[in-house]
Amino acid sequence: MPEKFSIRKRARSFVYAFRGIFYTLRTQHNFWIQLALMLLAVVLGFLYDIGRMEWIAIAAVSGLVLSFEIVNTAIETFLDNHYPEQDKKIGRVKDLAAGAVLMASIAALVVGGLIFIPKIFAI
Fold first, then answer.
1. How confident is the model at residue 2 (pLDDT cuts 50, 70, 90)?
2. What pLDDT, on a 0 to 100 scale, did the predictor assign at position 3?
């Protein structure tokens, strides 16, 4: 039988989620870089007065990159804790997770380029 709905349990789930975000922020240098680039995109967005759909695109790809980085951190943390020895198969899983972050980052770079390069060179 499903568990009864509880506001207290739902609120606690947010605490756990924020704990994961802060763990990633404290431990992952790439997360800092991704946040800095997102901040740069926001600053450029205000400077160049981008439109609503452009803001949506920036928010979507930024959220995607940061989310993938958190998932990558979860996968790597789990594998490092459960399989501390070097193993090619474990390494492949970690490479795949990192590759997902890289692909999302490339997509974000392309979106940012499509939005900002024409505006920067129009000056």
1. confident
2. 83
The alpha helices in the chain, defined as continuous H runs, are 7-27, 29-47, 52-82, 88-121
Range of the domain at 99: 7-121
For residues 114 and 106, the answer to whether their CB atoms sit within 8 Å is no
Contact 69, 34 (CB under 8 A): yes
* CATH number for position 64: 1.10.287.3610
Q: How many domains does the chain have?
A: 1
8 Å CB contact between 51 and 114: no
For the segment 18-67, what is each residue's pLDDT rounded down to a tens digit? Answer: 999 999 999 999 999 999 999 999 999 999 999 999 999 999 999 999 99
Query: Please, what sign has the CA dihedral across residues 58, 112, 61, 73?
Result: negative
**CA 90 to CA 83: how far, in whole Å?**
8
In a domain, 2, yes or no: no
Q: What is d(CA 76, CA 122) in angstroms, rounded to the nearest whole number? A: 43
Yes or no: say if 83 and 90 are a contact pair by the CB < 8 Å rule.
yes
